[in-house]
Amino acid sequence: MKRNAFMPVVLAVLFLSAISCSKDKLHVFNWSYYTPESVVKQFEKEFNVRVVIDEYASNEEMFAKLKSGGNGYDIVFPTQDYVAIMIRQGMVEKINHSLIPNLKNIDPVVLRKASYDSGMEYSVPYYWGATGVIVNTARVPDYRKSWSIFGRQDLRGRMTLLDDMREVMGNALTFLGYSINSKNPAEIEEAKNYINNNWKPNIIKFDAEAFGKGYANGEFWVVHAYPEVVYEEILDDEQLLNSTVFFIPEEGGSGYIDSMCILKGAKNIELAHKFIDFIHRPEIYAEFCDDFGFPASVNIPARRHIHGPSWYSMEDILDAELKFDLGDALELYNDAWYNSIRAGK
User: Which of 49, 142, 160, 292 has the greatest CB tally within 10 Å of its CB?
Assistant: First the structure.
């Protein structure tokens, strides 16, 4: 009797599972904290599909996984320097513009900056932003808006730098008065030594994953950050929110353009194009920006639909230098980073 009563339930579960499995799936490989759940659910409902998301904390992590055989993804979101690398290495499909009518919404200013693929032949800009510094002013009331804050010994053990080679070394180069894209061995060596001698002794760790939570629980007072990661963690803490300041240092910062690319061999190329087009609907793009406290930096008509505050303005990021593909000079950075700066931290 119990068994017979149970069987319809089992059959119902199996039926629902079969329906779920029969849906087309879009496999997305994106940065942590970077895909609004509300947007994903709307896409799934409208197109009767399922979106499967894996996350990464750095371009290096993403690239290493793809190169080591990680496959099955349809869309990936590399930053501009890695877009160029992946185009050069034949890792991404060409974009079919006829399937993405909302490309007309992309700001020409962003495309001019995206010189590595200004015609969107292989990539479509997702977001143009910048990293900077988050400070808990209740703990650090006096500070200069400068990268020199990481040289403060009085804050030793209360600060983190991103676990991102190009970010950290690029900001050291900027602080020293050089280009974030320097290929000069002497300048790269100087930046390495400066980080090792002035910043590294004061930080508790290089961290691209837990800095937001660490800041929220009071473990860290100063963090090199993607601001949205921190604000996501502290929105419900009014006291901490009011004492939190984000700034792009006076010496300059590291700008970035993250883009949507369809990976070579993707199984759902047409669905991937639909997703990219969906993201750039003005009201959807505005929802994405509102979710993270972003200005609508890429999509012009979306700016009319923004409702919430932004943690920084577009004017703040205009002069932030973009990182570009360094070619063979990347080995100089790899050597400085992995064999010196990241050793033992």
Answer: 160
